[in-house]
Each structure stands twice: as structure tokens, then as C-alpha cells.
User: Fold this.
Amino acid sequence: MPELPEVETVVRDLRPLLVGRRLTRLEKSALAMRRNWDDRWKKRLVSRTVRAVERRGKWILLDLEGPWMLVHLGMTGQFTVASSKAPRENHTHFIFRLDDGDAELRFRDIRRFGSLTVFDDRPTLDSFFIASKLGPEPFGVDAKYWLDALRSTRRNLKATLLDQTIVAGVGNIYADESLHLAKLHPGRLANSLTAAEAERLRLAVENVLTQAIAHRGSTIRDYVGGSGLMGGFQDEFGVYGRTGEPCRGCRSEITRIVLAGRSTHFCARCQKQRG
Ligand SMILES: [Zn+2]
Assistant:
């Protein structure tokens, strides 16, 4: 599932291809996505010019000079600009023609856990994020906020990092990688961390996400960036998906357990249960 680094890569790829371009036509498949489509939105979108492409958590935001388009890639979403002459792959649910003739903005999603929705204006979009209690972006999180958030939950660290209301954008891969970098056991209770450990984790999350963005995110299954290029961070993983392989730090075998209903990978030697 695309997490913050993958979504950020899509946004950075799309920005130069979309800003200043007008959406001239929309073709949409009849299949339902995770969030409902309103037929009136087609009229709201067509002939709008893209003013900006932004990211918030795992969401992609398109500023259309009035209305805003909000896209979530779900598990298998691909949001790309392609030549209209490039073959249309199966499971392409939205195709926007762009005014520069040859290019199309396409949203493809095999599993259809993704969504494309439209908001009338920025305040309406902001209300959506407020209602969903989306937490702060993980870069430059206030240290006091972070410590308080960890201290006020009774959950383990893995579940806490996955909670989008505590910090936006971290998912299964980057939770495991951050905990490994911070040398903290994923099953440890968040409220048991010392202030120094909490700070180590806050910086590890930033560090891992920054590195992953520099590698254009991780391609596990279907993820590609906005220009169709794959990510490369999957080759840098310390623990994720490396069950039985040696830890890059201590050579112990990486262990896999299930926590918060999710596959969780860690090094039992570098990440001891007790700090
Ligand atoms: Zn280790």
C-alpha cells in the first residue's frame, strides 16, 4: 500500500506535468471506488486548470482554481500522466485529457480501495481532514506533542505509528523501518517510552521517510510514481519483508510477528522488548 514517500513521489512527479494544464475531458469507468462518485463532479472538473498539486498524509490534492480534487491511492492505485497513445491498461477508472494535446492523467486501481472525490473549495476540504482527525505531517513534529501522544495511548508502538490521527502518512512498511532505526521493539507499549526514546523514534520516522522519498518510495507490488517510474527504497529495507534474513546491524535473523493485525518485522537483538 502506498504510504507517504510513495504519495510524495507521485505528487513531485505530477507537479511539473500538471500545473498550468487544463483538464479538457473526463472518461470514467462505471465501477465503484471506495468513496462514492457524484455525477455532478464531472462538470466541476472539466475545463478547470490545475493550479497546484499537494500532499497531505497519504492524500493527493489538486487545486483546480476553486474546486479541489482529492485522491487516495488505496492499496494498488496508480495516478500517472501518460501519452494518450500509450495503451490503456485494464483497471483504469479515470482518464482526464490534458490541453497540451497528447497527454492524459490516468487513475488506475486494480483493487479499487482508492478514491477520487471533489470538494467545492479549500475550506470544505479542510473540514474533511478535520472531521477525519488527520494528525500532523511527520516532518518537524513538535517534540512535546509527540511525547504527549505516546504517553496518552495504551497501545503498542506499531499500532500507535499506524494511527493516522497521531501522525499522518506512516503505514506498515515505514512503521517497521522507523522502529528498527530507533532500536525499539514494535510490541512495546507507547506509554512506557522515556523522553529520550520518544525523541529517538520521532527522529527515526523523519529520517526513514526522508530517505524513502530520496529513493522515490518503495515498489512492492503495483506502486509507480506519477511519471510511471518505480520506486527503489525496497532495496534499502532494514527489516520489512526480510523475515529470516540477517539484520544489517547485528546479523541476527529478522523476525516476523503479527501486531495490530499487521505483519511486523523486527530484529529481536537490536530491538529488545525492554528498552
Ligand atoms: Zn539486529
Remarks:
- The first strand starts at residue 23 and ends at 28.
- The pocket of zinc ion is lined by residues 247, 249-250, 252, 267, 269-270 (CB under 6 Å).
